Amino acid sequence: MSAARTAAPVLRRGRTGTGVKAAVLVALALAAGVAGLVAGPAVTTADVAEVFAGGGDPLARHIVLNLRLPRTLVALTAGACLALAGLVLQSALRNPLAGPEVTGVTPGAVLGAVTATGLGLAGWQSPTAVVVAACLGGCAGAGLLWLLAGRERGDPEQTAVHGVLVSAVLTGATAVVLLIAPGELGSVVQWLVGSTEGRVWRHWELLWPWALCWGAAAWLLAGPLMLLRCGDEQAAALGLDTGRARAAALACAVALTAGAVSAVGALGFVGLLVPHVALAVFGADLRATLPGAALLGAVVVGGADAGAQLLSRALAQALDADRLTVPVGALTTCAGAALLLIVARRRADLR
User: Fold this and answer.
1) Domain span at residue 334?
2) Burial of 287 (0-12, 13-18, 19+ CB in 10 A)
3) How many domains does the chain have?
4) Among 32, 103, 116, 166, which residue's CB has the most CB atoms within a 10 Å radius?
5) What confidence score (pLDDT) does residue 4 get?
């Protein structure tokens, strides 16, 4: 009885701490969304406020409601999907360097979108066709990994190695497609770097149900994923079918990544680094860490989108250019690479 009384306040404090952290991240996500609405050119912060108050001229209303708002929502949701996919992959494969970028999923989705665009079957004006093509490509990349792994699917290290090989092959195939159809380079380069430019309500309408469905599936897999993180032997001893659990987790990660890539292209390092931050903030209980990772991913990509818009405005003014766009994927890749180098150097110094 005394042990239970002692443990109860500790549990309440843990839940309260998690709730506070989640509330802070929600506030940061809202701040990133507001920053995305006001960061671009053509309309001021006062214009944005006036539009949401029900006023504003027709041009300002069109820019804010039909261009800025869907772009911001797509950026936040895509970031959440990529962060969730990364955490699911790292947990299922027990590899801290596993991520959508190096498991064949992101390169496959990019290949599907680029191929469909090069063949004239899809494009930025036909988001539904792009979504279908990217999802098929992402599933094909994951399927190739699954076939290549063969009997070694239960070995996380071998699966990760095969994922890197599959990613390299798919990236090479994308380069071949671009060589065959060089005239399409300008229209598909955003897929290779990752961009939220030109996102409209149709992209949001396709993305949010997909993200909600597979995000819920990821949360339902929190228990099996926590067991997989402990190792296959321990998980099997507790009655978990590790093969089926890992297959379900990989399918969930593929779906989340394909949905995000179909909307914004390849955003480097989001699915690789954000899960580590989420685990550091929320701990090993994935029932709390998975939603936390989704919020962190939304904050990162939403903030990066606002930063890319501000940088685009600054460069356009400095270079006296009418229109200059910095893709958000370039910002996430540079920031992620810098952070990874800092962490690697600190670990090397500690040794």
Assistant:
1) 17-24+56-347
2) middle
3) 1
4) 103
5) 41
Residue 351: half-sphere exposure toward Cβ, Cα within 13 Å: 6
pLDDT at 1: 43
226 lies in some domain: yes
Q: By the 8 A CB rule, do 203 and 75 touch? A: no
Asked if the structure places residue 297 within a domain, the reply is yes
CB-facing half-sphere around the CA of 136: CA atoms within 13 A = 11
CATH of the domain at 142: 1.10.3470.10
What are the mean pLDDT values of the chain's consecutive 10-residue runs (351 residues total)? Answer: 43 68 94 92 87 88 92 96 94 83 83 81 68 81 78 63 84 83 63 84 90 96 92 86 87 87 87 92 93 96 93 83 82 86 70 59
* Within a domain: 49: no
pTM tops 0.85, yes or no: yes
**Residue 91 · residue 97 · CB < 8 Å:** no
